[in-house]
Amino acid sequence: METKLSYKDNQVIISPDQPFKIIGERINPTRRKKLASSMAAGDFSLVQEDARLQVAAGAHILDVNAGVPGADEPALMRGAMQAVIEVAEVPLCFDSANPDALKAALEHYPGKALINSTTAEEEMMGRILPLAKEYGAAVIGVITDDAGIPATPEDRLATAKKLIDRAADYGVPKEDIIIDALALTVGADHNASRVTLASIALIRRELGVNINLGASNVSFGLPDREYINTAYLALAIANGLTTAITDPTKQEISLTIMACDLLMGQDEYAMRWIRAYRKRNQA
Amino acid sequence: MDLKSIFNSVLEGDAEAVRTGVNQMLESGASAESILHEALIPAMDEVGKRFEEGDFFVPEMLIAARAMQSGLGLLKPHLAEGDVQSSGKVVIGTVKGDLHDIGKNLVAMMLEGAGFEVVDLGTDVDPTKFIEEVRNGAQIIGMSALLTTTMNNMKAVIEAIEDIGMREQVKIMIGGAPVTGEYAKSIGADGFASDASSAVRLAKELMG
């Protein structure tokens, strides 16, 4: 199944038959004081710098979060969107639970965007899915519902199915739903990633949809996080993950993903791998 | 077994050794109060300190808290007879729309470890639930949010408390990745803590 996103003429296709797609996570004021205060002051230069750095590092899509405490989120979301498209020609992923903020960006965005995100809660779907329909956007569907986080892969499959069915009721087609398989923290429950990996495989097999993870969450609270993060990405990709919200400016992340593409048969004659190697060693 | 080895077993997260130690000490006539105040609570203080300094990681803190609680469980029947004072009653939860619970759980455990009575409402907590606990005598509300998209629900809880005229009867503390001290001030909370140990310090301050 193909999820197509675009910015103007630049189309990005998320699909199991394509190289893995990276959604750059850095444009987010959480725990980034400087970014938060500059955004709140209407200065988007750091946002632009993060956009440029991430695209140069291999981001195919950029997540934009404008949730600065106490600030006017719709205005910041639109401002951040406009600042980013001045410097980066990749599709954007608008990260908010506030329909007004999403609308402020979507109505001026030249292309097909991704919305991050809805859950399978009725109230949430009722707020987010009509926007996806109106603006023709794709949506990340986080498979939690009114009962919380489904415990087993089978329950997560059922929640994903419910979300996709309800999206269809709202006129959002299955290929425009990317299921988020919940990257729970392995430091709080050592079985967390096993359940997630099994869920990815099951949902991919049964529903055929594209699957996302907010991958860095898995290693929260542990030392040497980068080894955990890269191993997790590789395992998840092997199980059917097709995109992840992560930080490609960390070389271990971008190289691991490129190596996974090669090992999954998505890099003919290893040309991308070799080209990237030469580029690194010229610099 | 002595207090020191119970202290060490809590740090190692060895719940069984803590239980054995507590039982042995109780049998040999030690008071529950002394085990609590000279082994379990100091051990959790040490855990909090090590975590703050980056020497301890989340799973170590979780198993230490579990070991502490399993020792506390054995002490409780004995403590009820004594006159151990609770540090205060705290209701804690992750706000509506948010399912992140690790930080909130750590804070709840550390507060218990410091002698607070803790009512943990879990995650995705409706404002009315917090209010109910304030009516039931909670002196502090602790709220957590991990997302920029959910943190404004903290404000909704504070407003709900104001609406029913109970704001003066309760202290409100908040935390979570996107939360700052300025944000706490702007929504009218009484304080902000960036990790579990500072949350305990803050709760003690707020109780005066």
Summarize the structure.
By secondary structure, chain A is an alpha/beta fold. Helices cover 46% and strands 18% of the residues of chain A.
3D structure, described in words:
- The complex is a heterodimer of chains A (283) and B (208).
- With 283 residues, chain A is of the alpha/beta class.
- Chain A has a single domain, classed as Alpha-Beta Barrel (TIM Barrel), CATH 3.20.20.
- Chain A has helices at 33-40, 45-56, 73-87, 99-106, 122-135, 153-169, 192-207, 225-239, 251-263, 271-282; strands at residues 3-7, 10-14, 21-27, 61-65, 92-95, 114-119, 138-142, 177-180, 210-214, 243-246.
- In chain A, strands 3-4-5-6-7-8-9-10 form an eight-stranded parallel barrel, surrounded by six helices. In chain A, strands 1-2 form a two-stranded antiparallel sheet.
- In chain A, α7 (192-207) runs parallel beside α8.
- In chain B, α6 (127-135) crosses α7.
- The mean pLDDT of chain B is 92.
- Chain B is built from nine helices and five strands; from the N terminus they run ααααβαβαβαβαβα.
- In chain B, 56% of the residues lie in helices and 11% in strands.
